[in-house]
Amino acid sequence: MKHLLCLNDWTSEEILAVLDLADKLKYENKNKIAHDHHLKGKTLGMIFSKSSTRTRVSFEVGMHQLGGYALFLSSSDIQIGRGETVHDTAKTLSRYLDGIMIRTFMQKDVEDLAVYGNIPIINGLTDELHPCQILADLMTIREKKGTLKGLKVCYVGDGNNIAHSLLIGCAKTQTNISIATPKEYLCMQKYIDIAMGIASETGSNIEILTDPKQAIKDADVVYTDTWASMGMEDEKEQRAIIFAPYQVNEELFSLAKQNAIFMHCLPAYRGFEVDKAIIDGPNSVVFDEAENRLHAQKAVMVKLLSD
Ligand code: CP
Ligand code: NVA
């Protein structure tokens, strides 16, 4: 049984093979070459305990394009929202579905679904990780830059789910990554250690910094994310003060390579983590990233759900 709980579940070869398949599915999609045989008759359950635009729509449309069916399950409507255990939910849903995509708070809940169920589980974002986003981002970087190996990715901002998955994704694909966060909002040490361990085998260079100017120097890719993730909305004002030096604006972005691309998983908050001139400017690829969620996740579903 294969899952996607964390990018570290997969080898570098498996990740690159999924990116190749995503490219193929994108080509077929653009050229109207039908590929709805892949998941004919399969059903994906999509459990959401947090809001979503891209994840929900791209999984649902992707499943449709592959010939299957996707079922939206808001946690406030199913019994898990009233206290039914992850154990019982996993056992029950395994009797109906061919796979589950889940967006929730605790990474442990996603891991428990995989332990107790007997169908593939896909992590659609937790407080700690967002592997599907980073697969789409690696696909986008490769599309724009022609390669991943040896590039310098810079992430500035909160040491959050995106930062953790980006660290692991870069380490797996021989991409160098420099992360700058305020010292109060560092990445979790657990994920830094995992990424460092992978990098010692693949040769990626990883830098964990607090100075955004140092991190962004000569970067090929500049990435940021909201300063207040879902569930932390109450901290938005207080965080805005500490994070101010980490805003990606024209001054900071000018320190990256001249042809650097700007990335953001979205939703974005203009005037906070990124200035309008950058996210709406010529180097921004944020809507290509959003589009590639569809293609990358179709590849994930073919890998995990097809016979
Ligand atoms: N990037 C991302 O996961 O977007 P949604 O929250 O809209 O799904
Ligand atoms: N870090 C953000 C990502 C949203 C896709 C959050 O968790 O809200």
Brief characterization of the structure:
The protein is of the alpha/beta class and 307 residues long.
Task: Describe it.
With 307 residues, the protein is α/β, with parallel strands linked by helices. It folds into 2 domains: 7-130 and 293-305, Rossmann fold (3-Layer(aba) Sandwich), CATH 3.40.50; 132-289, Aspartate/ornithine carbamoyltransferase (Rossmann fold), CATH 3.40.50.1370. It contains 12 helices and 9 strands. The chain has a 5-stranded parallel β-sheet. A 4-stranded parallel β-sheet has the order 2-1-3-4, sandwiched between helices. Strand 3, helix 4 (107-116) and strand 4 (121-123) form a beta-alpha-beta unit. The radius of gyration is 19 Å and the shape is globular. It starts with 11 loop residues before the first helix and ends with a helix. The structure holds phosphoric acid mono(formamide)ester and norvaline (NVA). Phosphoric acid mono(formamide)ester binds at residues 52-55, 125, 133, 265-266.
> In total, how many domains does the architecture comprise?
2
User: What string, H for helix and E for strand, traces the elements in order?
Assistant: HEHEHEHEHEHEHEHEHHEHH
Q: Number of DSSP strands?
A: 9
Find the CATH superfamily of the largest domain: Aspartate/ornithine carbamoyltransferase
Ions, cofactors, ligands: which are bound? phosphoric acid mono(formamide)ester, norvaline
Strand content: 5-15%
Mean pLDDT: 97
Shape: globular
Spatial strand order of the main sheet: 7-6-5-8-9
In terms of per-residue confidence, which ranges show pLDDT below 50 for 5 or more consecutive residues? none
In CATH terms, what is the fold-level topology of the largest domain? Rossmann fold
Number of helices: 12
CATH class of the largest domain: Alpha Beta
Instruction: Tell me the helix content.
Output: 40-55%
CATH architecture of the largest domain: 3-Layer(aba) Sandwich
Structural class: alpha/beta
Radius of gyration: 19 Å
The separation of the N and C termini measures 12 Å
The biggest beta sheet reads:
5 strands, parallel
